[in-house]
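Tutorial, part two.
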Amino acid sequence: MAGFRTYRTTVKLDNWFEDRLLEEDEENQHLAKVQKGELNAQKVDFIKHHMMRPVQLTVSADKRLHFGDVVMLLNIEGENPVCTTLSVNAEMNPLRKIPFASIVAPCGVSGGRRLQACVRTAFVITSVDGTPEGCPLLFDQSFALRTTSGFAGGLYLTSEPRSFHKSAKLSRLQEVNLESELTFESWWKVVFFDPEERMEFEGRPVPANVRVVIVHCKTNQALAVLGNFVQAYSRFTFPQAFPQTFSHSPSFFLSRTIYGNEFEVTAHSFLDCHRTERDNNHWIVCTGDPSGEGLLFFSRTLSVAAGMETIEQCRKEFSLSNIKEGPVAVTREPCHDA
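Running the prediction step on this input gives:
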């Protein structure tokens, strides 16, 4: 058989001298790649080393979000809460040699399980309308989410309308990625998670570490992570030809990255029968803990850590009780999704 060696190379048979020279050339090429940093394993280790560096989140003294704050975006969904963070999915570029100064655009994002603040999970609230840094972020006010400077490159979270040529790889929904230029596709806004209270909270400061919905300004689609999402909820979005594939395969939305299997992040509003966003669209903008123990969100009480802040608590904490007098009674019938 051609190319098959019956004996070791130390056994001198046939073109043994040429075979030895070829082995020496391969070894020299490998050593040259190691010195230049061209091996894939070296590139992966280099990216992980810089992307996993810890970052100090902004500590909010007034429990509100401000322009210029360094925050993390956390999603908690399901009856058994599963925490997912919006993470930069910096992949290996085979054409680049290490060391390089920063990642390049376009760069993807995904939903990771790492809850520590690092370069990969930290974002900066950036103004798009000239609002100076330090001013509170208001509900329905446009802003941009930018990665930290340095190795993260200061890229902006961007989403474009779904088209035949541009969509999410797995779900085929509206794609979300990172771009270097600040455009209208990079504008987002924060709305209150309960649609019945959004008009009352419009124009008021956004509290930190509570559930909110982040909406894309151009397409009016909410930022979502496809974690424990079951496709039976969106039977009109996906093809009818594969009902069992989409209904019984939540792992269909797991993308394989150099950081492990992570969930896909898209811009799509998943609504229930009450026209309310599901847990996939609920995000908690986390700030730092003054005690230095990580996220302030996880250092609070168990009820708050489960993400079950009530409207009354939010109003009491941020002096919004004058919007409506008396307790809020919301009665809804349970949803029965097919």
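The radius of gyration is 24 Å. In part three we will examine how such features are distributed along the chain.
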